[in-house]
Amino acid sequence: MRSDNTRTKSQEGDAAQFEFYTIESTNGIVADYYRSYYNVIYRANLVLENLEAAGASSAQFEAEAKFVRGYAYFNLVRLFGDIPLIDKVIAPLDLETSFTRVAQSNIYDLIVSDLESAVANLDDTFKDRASKAGAEGLLAKVYLTLGRYGEAQSLLESIMNPSRGFGLESDFKDVFYNEGNKETIFSIGFLPGSNDDSQNFSAEWLNAVGRTSGVNYVTLDAKAALDALGGDRTALSYREDSGQAGQYQVVKYLPNGDDSLGIPVTSEDPTSAGNDWIVLRYADVLLMHVEAIMAGSSETSSQEAKDSFNAVRARANMPTIDASTPITKQDLLDERRVELAFENHRFFDLVRMGEAQNVLSSFSNAYGLGFTGTDLLLPIPQVEIGLSNGLLSQNPGY
Questions:
Q1: Do 76 and 83 meet the contact criterion of CB atoms below 8 Å apart?
Q2: What is the pTM of this model?
């Protein structure tokens, strides 16, 4: 919702603050996200402090904990900027460590170190648990964010080696409804109907199925992009709400299925769904490969880049780029938008590729929203600032 891809249906509550770029430091969604990820970091630190209890599995558990910690910090630093750095279990009253914001460069140093350790000590046994390829792909995205393009390219080409067994699914629908497929590199796995292991986020995207009247409805801007550039992906990316003409829903994670699209019911109770959340998949790797080769420039004529780009386009039955035509940064942004629509990449892509200010300002002006440059970071939750006794500062604009 902070990008130009989705909006709320009701335009009410905390979620609507994301849509209109009016997020307040008291927003409950922001506070929950911030605390949830620091809980992930705490659990990872707790594992790392007790590795002796793991016996022969200690090296694997260490690598998995560092993968999870690196993933958590990568999300936090991109969303909040300078944040507290907690790399070990701390005492409850250690306020200085808990609430002192550390420069982003130091956060990234830990992320890189953690993910390098994961790459060195994991294999590709799992898709819904930390893996070597998952760590390589995540570290490649970190390197792209830091402008370390050559290192990113090497990691991506490691994943792309045919011996690793990854590739594009021939049917786009199978990416999401044939879980554990060859395109999935790392996903957060869920099981339908389980109190402990199901999810309810996909129900929230439907019309009054979850606790809301529908969040993450597709913007007209995103619909136009998919209609023009999506090819075979379009019908499997959004659908019109059968209960309200002119409203469009995401369909990549439909817990209650859709007979007209051949999407199966994945849960009898949509609020206890089993649809996995895909964090990294092979199409993303191919498009990051193009970005790495482009290396911050406005275009590339590299045949290697075209091979990766065209593989994604061909799967969608879209025209490929010929030998005489360069791939531009706009081509890449457009392709990432329609291929990875509603998978939580668009905002980060715009920021990483230096286009967030221009794109979101134009989108905001066109639809009467309130975007300003300070909206590229979320506010530090006010409850955390209150608990810090003055140690924790707020981001500009909040």
A1: yes
A2: 0.97
